[in-house]
Predict the structure.
Amino acid sequence: MKKETRTVVYDDELRLEAYRFEGIERPFPNHFHEHYVIGYVEDGTRELSCRNRKYTIEKGSIVLFNPGDNHGCVQSNGGAFDYRGLNISKEIMLDLAEEVTGKRELPGFSENVIYDEDVVCYLRLLHEMVMQGTCGFEKEEALLFLISLLIWNYGQPFACCVPEFRQEIRKACEYMEQHFAERIYLDQICRYAGLSKSTLLRAFTKSKGVTPYRYLEAVRINEAKKLLAKGVPPVEAAMRTGFSDQSHFTNYFNQFIGLAPGIYREIFFEREGDGEQHDK
């Protein structure tokens, strides 16, 4: 059995995360991120769900997730899964889009799964340079070429990638985003949104692709990531983001991010000057 390895590096120059997962067998539950994801499947086959659509991804597949795109995947053939990817924040994507298009507007990926040899070429080159701690403008050049290809061939205004949903659903999201650090009950969300419990559950899940509880957990995990990146200890991050206990927090963080909270924190605060890699 192939050893499971997770490697994550934060690039200070480009201000993005690069990660590589090898020998992964466990599923990733339906969730979403606040950042863009550009990923490449190196080996294995998985069934991917994204924005309520089903895909089969395999060696050579490129996955593109906009911020907020709900997605999850499970192994489909019993084998291991090898995958590399980049996480790019909306703030950095704004800078890149302005450089490429001359307009300071967030792009949206019109497709979630593509096959494009030119994109693979630049993605692999950029990913390897980040992982190796390479410095110099060649790395930035590869990033700009990659983003240019994606925007011109698969881009559209970001607003077009955000599904329409009713005002009540927006209010439910707003309530959870404002009160994620507290113990929240379903009837509180329903009163704020103005819907019954059964109506909220049906409408929310249809609109967002995840249940209200899963949405809340994703909000908490995304907030915990920000705290860990600032050096906040995992125990404190768990308390400040509304998790009932450290074990609950660690389990959810592992499910959504693929790393333990402490390992994620280390990539920001225990790197060597040339960039330290963590294989755990």
Confidence is low (pLDDT under 50) at residues 272-280.
